[in-house]
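BUG: 3D viewer hangs when loading the predicted structure for this chain

Environment: internal workstation, default settings.
Expected: structure renders.
Actual: progress bar stalls at 90%.

Input used:
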Amino acid sequence: MTQTSLDLYKQRLGEIPETVWQNVELEWLNLADNGLRSVSRQIGKLVHLTMLDLGHNRLSSLPDAFDTLAHLRFLYLSNNRLRSVPPSLWSLKSLIYLNITDNQLASLPDDIGNLLSLIEIRLYNNLLTSLPDSIGQLANLRELHLMGNQLSSLPESIGRLKNLGKLMLEGNKIEFLPDVIGNLKHLTDLDLRNNRVKEIHPSIGKLKNLRFLDLRANQLTELPTSIVKLLNLEKLDLRWNQSLAIPEWITKLEHRGCIVYI
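Structure tokens produced before the viewer hung:
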């Protein structure tokens, strides 16, 4: 009988048994939390994989053998020791979910823009200082999680992510958002807490679907009046902006039912 699923989660393997690579019909493979330090190039044999979980191991590198995994849709690499990922990973045209959180990535290559099917990418708790312009090519992206990095700005190309619903930027070093932020018409969640934001561009008022805006713990001194235009806003958090002058129009938001924390 053909085996299409193999769950080896938390089996204290230490290394991947050679027998795993013989299951060439596998579609679902979970190797998470096994103390793994390496992965064989033979992973490229598993050409039918749609889900691969290598999270919560001790991997500092991966083999450049992902280009044959044309059907891979979900890839989990979180909580490892990765400083980079192999070039072949960026050729995964079917990938819709990518999780590389809690690693040591300091940069992303331009080839990230090749992941045209990507819907959600989680990159929080790395060492990223910037994003490549090619991030704007991810036209299907709906969630971008970048918390806990070293970002000081966002590229102008971010404005091309027309389907983006969640932009999570907590705990970076961002000082401002580009005016193209107003192009993100489907954005519902914008989290900027614990950054260094000094001002918000008035284009934020174009985000008609925005429901949650978190500006806690920044360096704001004033807010653009265009925020009043955010008719779907449910929560606005302004706490811990010590020099922020609270405008009178805030009461208009509250009267509409928006929760405002000051």
